[in-house]
Structures are given as C-alpha cells and as structure tokens.
Design a protein that fits this description.
Elements: H1 9-19, H2 35-43, H3 51-61, H4 65-73, H5 88-109, H6 114-129, H7 134-154, H8 163-174, H9 182-189, H10 193-204, H11 208-226, H12 231-237, H13 243-254, H14 258-264
Helix pairs in contact: 1-7, 3-5, 4-7, 5-6, 5-7, 6-7, 8-9, 9-10
InterPro entries: HTH_AraC, HTH_AraC-typ_CS
Keywords: DNA-binding, Transcription, Transcription regulation
Protein name: AraC family transcriptional regulator
C-alpha cells in the first residue's frame, strides 16, 4: 500500500485501519528512556494543538474506549500534531512520537503510574521505529491509543464499587448534557429509587445528586481547558440552566471562577 502524500491523509489512513482493527495490547516490560523523548515529555503542551485534537486527548484521559473508537473511525482532518517534515514517512514517525508522548502524560493524570506509562511509550516507539510504511504506523497508532485508553478505563472505578454503582455512574456520565432524575436512574437499573439511593451512598460515600453535580463540574473543567466554547455555552452543555449558578457552584468546588480557571491553562 502506498504511503500517505500529505499530513491530512494520515487521518484517512487511520479511518481505513479502524474498519479492520483487532486490538492486541503490548506486553509491558521495563525499558530505558531515550533522552530526546524525555525532553519531549517535559516540553509538550496539549494547548498548542487544535480543539478537535485536544478533545481526542480528553477522551483518552477519561478512558472512554467507546468514544475513542468512534472518533478514530471518523477522524477530523485537524486531528494531527502539525507538519514537522516534508517526507510523508518521517512525518508519520514524528507524529507518532509526539502523540505517544502526550498520551503517556495523560495516562499518568488518569491514574497509571509514571514508570509504567513511560515504559509503555518507549516500547511503542521502539516497535514503530521498525516499521517501513505510513500504513503500518497508522495501525500501531490506533493500537497505541486504544491500549492506553483501555488501561486508563480499568482504573476508572475503585475496586469496591458494585455493579449497580458502576452502571449508575456510567449512565450519569453518558447523560451529563441532559436532565437526570433519580427515578430515571432507578428505572434504568431496574431497582427502586430508595434502594438505588441507599446503595449508591453506602458504596461511594456521596449522594447521587452530589455525584451528578460534581460530574457536571468536572466535565465543565475539561471543556474550559480543552475547548474554546464560551462559559455560557459550557454551562448549558453540562446541564446548568443559569451561567451564574454554574459559576457559583464551580467556584465553590474549585475555589476559583470558571474564567480564572481557564486562564490558568492558556
């Protein structure tokens, strides 16, 4: 198969790869880190990239394997890390190194210990370095993204969370943009409202109402960091009818206004 001819085509290559993708996680062993890649880890900043690209990184950090598969099957042309070489194959190699470096840092934020995250990135870079076509690099890129996302997903919930609690949380996180009633959650879980509320609180130490509020604010914080949406747009998208109420609740949790929080990451 021919190599890609320009950087936008790498997204199209990923799309073709995704159709027949079969995920096989890499075996994680300890390997030394190269100084160049260490320096990249220290210097890369996710905010140097497009909004679409940053949203992809957000999904990885959240361990959202379902949405990651969807995004990579229908990639936005802006899901790239910038042009670093006129040579298509070299561009693909450089893009892979930047991407795995960024993702390894997000994996650490997502709960994976730093040694494992960086060792995994080293191993993927070593495997990529043996490849000779852009198609092959696209394949290992997809595998690498899904591997990291899957590992983060496994750390998404504490081990003591019951299936009922996990099911409830999954539903909440999937419906943050809509009104969520406890009766609705109870019907989804096929239990009574009182039973669900009691068990959820016993298992998590927090009420369902408070969990929903915190989840909405956490999503808002991510949108403030990774998108250029206005604060009003963000407040509405995470289920707050009033921007002022959103701002007051956000400041109570984060001890800073939404505007000041965004400025920290610009």
């Amino acid at each position: 198969m021919a190599n890609i001819n320009h950087e936008e085509d790498f997204s199209l290559t990923l799309k073709r790869v995704a159709k027949n993708f079969q995920f096989q996680p890499i075996t994680l062993d300890k390997q030394p880190s190269d100084q160049f890649f260490f320096e990249q880890r220290e210097n890369l900043n996710t905010h140097d990239y497009s909004e679409s690209f940053n949203l992809l990184l957000k999904l990885i950090k959240n361990g959202d394997t379902e949405k990651i598969a969807e995004v990579l099957s229908n990639p936005d042309p802006s899901l790239r890390v910038g042009k670093m070489s006129a040579d298509p194959l070299r561009q693909a190699r450089y893009s892979f190194v930047v991407l795995v470096t960024l993702i390894s840092r997000l994996a650490i934020e997502g709960g994976i210990d730093s040694e494992s995250a960086y060792n995994l990135s080293d191993l993927y870079i070593q495997k990529m370095d043996l490849l000779t076509t852009s198609q092959e690099i696209a394949e290992i890129t997809y595998s690498m993204i899904y591997d990291y996302t899957s590992r983060i997903n496994l750390l998404r919930y504490p081990a003591e969370y019951t299936q009922l609690t996990r099911m409830t949380i999954d539903y909440i996180l999937g419906h943050l943009h809509y009104p969520i009633r406890i009766e609705e959650l109870a019907n989804y879980a096929s239990v009574s409202k009182n039973y669900l509320s009691t068990k959820f609180h016993q298992n998590t130490g927090i009420t369902i109402t408070d969990f929903i509020l915190e989840a909405r604010l956490k999503e808002a914080a991510e949108l403030l960091r990774f998108t250029q949406q206005t604060i009003q747009e963000i407040s509405m998208s995470v289920g707050f009818s009033s921007p002022s109420y959103f701002a007051s609740r956000f400041k109570k949790i984060y001890q800073i206004s939404p505007k000041k929080y965004r400025e920290r990451f610009q």
